[in-house]
Amino acid sequence: MRATGGELGWLTWPLDQGEKPGWEVTQRTLNGSQFYTYSVCNVGEREQDNWLRTTFIQRRPAASRVFVELQFIVRDCNSFDATSLTCKETFNLFTSESDADVGTTFRKGQFKKVATIAPDEITSKNELRINTETRVVENLSRKGFYLAFQDIGACVALLSTRVYYKTCPATVKSLASFPETVAGGENQALREVSGVCVDNAVSEKLPRIYCTVDGEWVVPVGQCQCKPGYEEVKDACQECQPGFFKAVASGDKCELCPANTQRLSSGVLFCPCMDGFYRAPTDPSTGPCSGLPSAPRDLVATTTQLSAGKLLLTWSPPEDTGGRIDITYSIECQRCEGIVCQPCGEKIRYEPASTGLTDTKVSVSELDAHLNYTFIVEAHSGVSLFASQATPQAYRPPSTSALTTSLHYTDKCQFVHGKWDIHLQMDFIFSFRKRNSNSRQGPEDTYFSSSEQLKPLKTYVDPHTYEDPNVAVLKFATEIHPSHITKQKVIGAGEFGEVYRGILKVPARKEVAVAIKTLKPGYTEKQRQDFLSEASIMGQFSHQNIIRLEGVVTKFKHAMIVTEYMENGALDRYLKDHDGEFPSFQLVGMLRGIAAGMKYLSDMSYVHRDLAARNILVNNTLECKVSDFGLSRVLEDNPEGTYTTSGGKIPIRWTAPEAIAYRKFTSASDVWSFGIVMWEVMAFGERPYWDMSNHEVMKAINEAFRLPAPMDCPSTVYQLMLQCWLQDRSKRPRFGDIVNLLDKLLRSPDSLKTIADFDPRISIRLPSTSGSDGSPFRSVSEWLESIKMSQYSENFTCAGVVTMDHVLQMKNEDIKNIGVRLPGHLKRIAYSILGLKDQTSTLSVFAV
Ligand code: AMP
Question: What's the rounded mean pLDDT across residues 613-625?
Answer without folding.
Answer: 94
